[in-house]
Design brief:
Length: about 250
């Protein structure tokens, strides 16, 4: 009975918040539609698969319109008839008539450039375009990272993570990202996974455990990459952070 009463009270509180706060809160609690109508045309989302839209392409003066309790950006890009949801900007819609051609374009790796970004201390960063990338290895790396990354909702899961000492503040410590960007600059793959060198190997960074400031218990957790992938990506990493690289030269200049 107490659970039922609590559920009813929670529902009443949610309804009260919606009434008091209005549509912005309602919009944040709802999922945008998969299709919408605008200017006499039907638009569909999802043509970009698991890619992320580059939000820098939307400016503050981009025109907007409302549709079914949501607000949308009416994008004006040459060659594209697109709409973006304001509350979930990564959700992009294209005209139904061009959905299949757009999906085929962004499904082809020929329309993407592949990159590695290395970040160091003191906000130093270098991004390098990969020449002749092994597309299959990139795909395998992303699949592995997605299934082995840290999940706060299952923090105790065993994903092969190993604890190491925190990086020495007095020594260099770099974090690498491997990703792709569509050649038109509109979409990118996920950039959240970081990779670090540990024990002479490039490994997936699982997370940093600062142990609430207790240095004796803090540590860096990593997951070893598959043997079929590690040498390839370690080679890319080493080329960027080597003493002769532009990354190191730029740091010396600073």
């Amino acid at each position: 009975m107490n659970r039922i009463i609590k559920s009813v009270m929670a529902g009443m509180l949610s309804l009260t918040l919606l009434v008091v706060c209005g549509c912005p809160l309602l919009e944040s609690l709802m999922e945008p539609p998969e299709t919408l109508s605008h200017d006499g045309k039907t638009y569909k989302t999802g043509f970009y698969g698991d890619l992320y839209f580059n939000e820098e392409n939307i400016s503050s003066d981009t025109p907007t319109f409302d549709y079914k309790n949501f607000s949308f950006y009416d994008l004006d890009f040459p060659g594209h008839d697109w709409i973006a949801c304001r509350s979930v900007i990564s959700k992009i819609y294209t005209a139904e008539s061009t959905f299949e051609s757009e999906r085929a374009f962004y499904a082809s790796n020929e329309n993407f450039d592949f990159y590695c970004t290395i970040s160091g201390r003191e906000n130093s960063e270098q991004t390098v375009k990969i020449s002749n990338p092994d597309v299959e290895k990139f795909s395998q790396l992303w699949t592995f990272a997605s299934s082995h990354e840290y999940d706060p909702f299952h923090a105790g899961a065993d994903k092969g993570q190993q604890k190491h000492a925190m990086p020495d503040p007095a020594s260099e410590h770099y974090e690498a990202r491997f990703y792709k960007v569509s050649k038109d600059g509109f979409f990118t793959s996920y950039k959240g996974n970081l990779f670090v060198m540990q024990d002479g190997k490039l490994q997936l960074l699982y997370y940093y455990d600062y142990a609430n400031g207790n240095s004796s218990q803090s540590g860096m957790y990593t997951v070893e990459l598959p043997a079929a992938l590690e040498p390839y990506f370690r080679g890319i990493y080493n080329q960027i952070v080597s003493p002769a690289s532009a990354f190191q030269r730029d740091k010396i200049k600073k």
